[in-house]
Amino acid sequence: MMAKIFVIDNTLSIRRLMKDILEREGYEVESFATAEEALHEIEKNEPDLVMVDLRLPSMDGITFIKTLEENGFIFPIVVVSDITSPEAITEAFRHGICDFISKPFSPEEIGSAVERCIKNDESLQKRAREIERMLEKSDFRRALKHISKLFSDFPNSAYPHFLYALALKESRRGEAIRHLKAALALEPGFMRAKNELEKLENSGDGEK
């Protein structure tokens, strides 16, 4: 059964381009010019993944993502946008998006993001979110125990390195930087790891 993807962008040419790329990859695609139109359809016909711009008329992309979160929808969300400030990216990830692609994009970037978000092991995403909640509550001991298990279960994933860096960034900055670089070696397009690495490197010399 083909995965169903909803594309939300107010520019017709972008919608057509993304639809063409995704259909060539074998996905079923519906496109929408506004977040409101997409929400109306999602209530009746939930997709497997949503790709959304942040720059939308009326309801913007962040508000749309928050609305999905508040209403309990758990399908993966990929942001595709020319709004690429660290604040916007951080806010989007804070509300649970799976990936962020900046415009202009390549077909390979679109295909790779969908591959990661739909076909990757769902348990990794779920466990990673649980660990991030532990870190938000400063439950570092428990989080590190779970991260260690994540390294064992997903040795080729960037996520254990990223989460380990989040756990260490305040106390062992140098080691956190090394793990962020390891995450990016495994997944060069990992925007959250890039942003964290930039912040740590700009905040002073790392621990040697």
Structure description:
- This protein has 2 domains: about 5-120, Rossmann fold (3-Layer(aba) Sandwich), CATH 3.40.50.2300; about 120-200, Serine Threonine Protein Phosphatase 5, Tetratricopeptide repeat (Alpha Horseshoe).
- It has helices at about 10-25, 35-45, 60-70, 85-95, 105-120, 120-135, 140-155, 160-170, 175-185, 190-200, and strands at about 5-10, 30, 50, 75-80, 100.
- About 60% of the residues lie in helices and about 10% in strands.
- The chain is an alpha/beta fold and about 210 residues long.
- Strands 2-1-3-4-5 form a 5-stranded parallel sheet, sandwiched between helices.
- The model has no long low-confidence stretch (mean pLDDT about 90).
Keywords:
single chain, Serine Threonine Protein Phosphatase 5, Tetratricopeptide repeat, 208 residues, 5 strands, alpha/beta, globular, Rossmann fold, 10 helices, five-stranded parallel beta sheet
**CATH hierarchy class name of the largest domain:** Alpha Beta
Counted by DSSP, the helix tally is: 10
- State the CATH superfamily name of the largest domain: Response regulator
* Proportion of beta-strand residues: 5-15%
Question: And the CATH topology of the largest domain?
Answer: Rossmann fold
How far the N terminus sits from the C terminus, by CA atoms, comes to 51 Å
Helix content: 55-70%
Q: What structural class is derived from the secondary structure elements?
A: alpha/beta
Low-pLDDT ranges: none
Question: What is the average per-residue confidence, as pLDDT, rounded to a whole number?
Answer: 89
Record field, number of beta strands: 5
User: What is Rg?
Assistant: 18 Å
Domain Response regulatory: 4-118
Pfam family, one: Response_reg
InterPro entries: Bact_response_regulator, CheY-like_superfamily, Sig_transdc_resp-reg_receiver, TPR-like_helical_dom_sf
Modified residues (4-aspartylphosphate): 53
